[in-house]
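Pipeline run #58 for the internal structure catalog. This entry was flagged by the ingest filter as a single-chain record with no existing model, so it goes straight to prediction. Upstream metadata was stripped on purpose; only the residue string is passed forward. Reviewer on rotation: M.T. Logging verbosity set to normal.
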Amino acid sequence: PDTIVRIYSMSKVFTCVAALQLVDDGVVKLDDPITKWLPEFASPLVFTGGTVDAPVLEPLARPITVKNLLNHTAGLTYDFVHESPVQELYRRQDLWAASSMSEFVQKAATLPLLSQPGEAFHYSIADDVLGAVVERCAGVPFAQYVKERITAPLGMVDTDFDVPEAQRARLATLATTVDGK
């Protein structure tokens, strides 16, 4: 009963709750452009064709909004999806090596979008960017916001983005097999 398990993409729920709390608090509106807090996203370009090394890009037709991040229609993507040369550009940017949320945002903002905001659903880093919006709106690190406003009030004392060294013995290990079964 006290085993700590990784929740992976379930952290997206916490990110959405955090953003919607800020909407409820009147700090954020769903139609707000994210550049209100993330000026780094002032002028992303949208991929329309070409290759990884010679992409054809067009200007943004409309700004990315908080709602676009919430419903994954911001035009962003993940580096592990293999449907467009854009994902290779994401891989090359090595977003997950960023040492801070600000560095992550700086790197992500230079990448082209897969589509114009609001035009198509793409499972993506939208929740990570939304976490940056929460962090900048709240004025505290994102993990601290989640702890103070969501997990602590719910009594979720072992829920966090990292497992402290002192608690790692309680972490569930993943089972693997040699033949993949």
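catalog note: The chain has a mean pLDDT of 94.
catalog note: The beta strands are 45-50, 55-59.
status: ready for reviewer M.T.
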